[in-house]
Amino acid sequence: MTLRSQDPEIFDLIMRERARQRDDLELIASENYVSQAVMEATGTVLTNKYAEGLPGKRYYGGCEVVDVVEDLARTRALRLFPGSEGVNVQPHSGAQANAAVYLAALKAGDTLLGLDLSNGGHLTHGSSANSSGKLYRAVHYRVNERGIIDLDHVRDIARAEKPRIIVTGASAYPRLWDFAAFRTIADEVGALLLADMAHFAGLVAADLHPTPFGHCDYVTTTTHKTLRGPRGGMAFAREAHMKGLNSAVFPGLQGGPLMHVIAAKAVAFGEALDPSFRGYARSVIDNAQAMATTLVERGVTLVSGGTDNHLMLLDFSDKSYSGRDAEQALGRAGITVNKNTVPNEKRSPFVTSGVRIGTPAMTTRGLGLGEAVLVAGWIADVLDNWQDEGSLLRIRGQVHELTGRFPVPGIG
Ligand code: DSN
């Protein structure tokens, strides 16, 4: 029986979400559109299979096919990131990948040093609300008054706190990471070094962001952001750490791997290995920089003044409207973003003084430099008229006219 006939309620909701993704302009920096092939692999019979363990060492029979699938995913992941030594493709998410690294590398109470959440870091980098901040002693570095990570400040904290692990990577940091410099700091204080490259993994794969491989003991990522695969995670480690990492993923944290998602990861890695992926990643950055330039010209304050990667952080600290107001106004204009805290945030995390904007999804549907400038102008128009319903609806019409000309892969 088809989904439509068996469960029309869920079917209709999926159709509504499909239309939303097609008609609105998706600018959430951590989202993307997967290809038809990735989508297809995700919806297959592989969802029926239990495969606890690793290829060749499973706790279930009938794994001869999924063993090959997982081996392909691992091989392609290692090819995609030169310098990587070993990988586990089973983490269900980036959060699970980070938790696995901590479980493998730390003892309860060990010190973890990561970027502060309100300065662009992630919950799993030691937030008190997350297990990483409850099980371990988390301390944080911050960005400077220009919104940039100051390595002297990181070194000072590392020397004072003697962390067991230093975490690099962020959810809302628009600049590049200097992993070689972090390695020097980690070596000086005897710390392990983790790169959570979830946001910029696709840029690393395209050789457009410094690679963490060769510098970091562990590298984690999601697979669905700039890498443009299915929702999921994976974790890399130096060869010497792989046994511990594998045990941390299973049985440490997870049970059966999601083999349908692992198949889709393999498909996405195959796509990212194609030379055309570099062109996509280049456009992601070019579009972000064109949007940043236009927004600054229109008087919008950007944390750090611009971007080197796929995202920018708009700072409304000195405005009457909040991040939540801006998110809602942009939503009414057909532009989807997320409110975000900014450095030295004065408002609550539910309100915030910022909005994060990213270009991975709009670039996937083919929008280029001309459209990026146009869209940035609309964003500035929305902010200037955030309480004027007529202006928001007028812009919504323009947004939908634009998105109508750029089909979404797999949706049309
Ligand atoms: N929620 C993701 C993001 O939006 O960056 C990180 O987990």
List the helices and strands and how they pair.
Layout: H1 3-6, H2 8-23, E1 25-26, H3 36-42, E2 53-54, E3 57-58, H4 64-80, E4 86-88, H5 94-105, E5 111-115, H6 131-134, E6 137-141, H7 151-161, E7 165-168, H8 179-189, E8 192-196, H9 201-205, E9 218-222, E10 233-237, H10 239-253, H11 259-273, H12 276-297, E11 311-315, H13 323-332, E12 335-336, E13 338-340, E14 354-358, H14 360-364, H15 369-384, H16 389-404
Parallel strand pairs: 1-12, 5-6, 5-7, 7-8, 8-9
Antiparallel strand pairs: 2-3, 4-10, 9-10, 11-14, 13-14
Helix pairs in contact: 3-11, 4-11, 5-10, 7-8, 12-15, 15-16
Bound molecules: D-serine (DSN).
Residues 30, 94, 122, 171 line the site of D-serine (DSN).
Question: How many E strands?
Answer: 14
Number of domains: 2
How far apart, in Å, are the first and last alpha carbons?
25 Å
Look up the CATH topology of the largest domain: Aspartate Aminotransferase, domain 2
How would you name the CATH homologous superfamily of the largest domain? Type I PLP-dependent aspartate aminotransferase-like (Major domain)
Q: Helix/strand/pairing class, anyone?
A: alpha/beta
Total helices: the number is: 16
Largest sheet composition: 7 strands, mixed
The CATH C-level class name of the largest domain: Alpha Beta
Q: Biggest sheet, strands in spatial order? A: 4-10-9-8-7-5-6
Shape: globular
The proportion of strand residues reads 5-15%
**Bound small-molecule species:** D-serine
The succession of helices and strands, N to C, reads HHEHEEHEHEHEHEHEHEEHHHEHEEEHHH
CATH architecture of the largest domain: 3-Layer(aba) Sandwich
Estimate percent helicity.
Answer: 40-55%
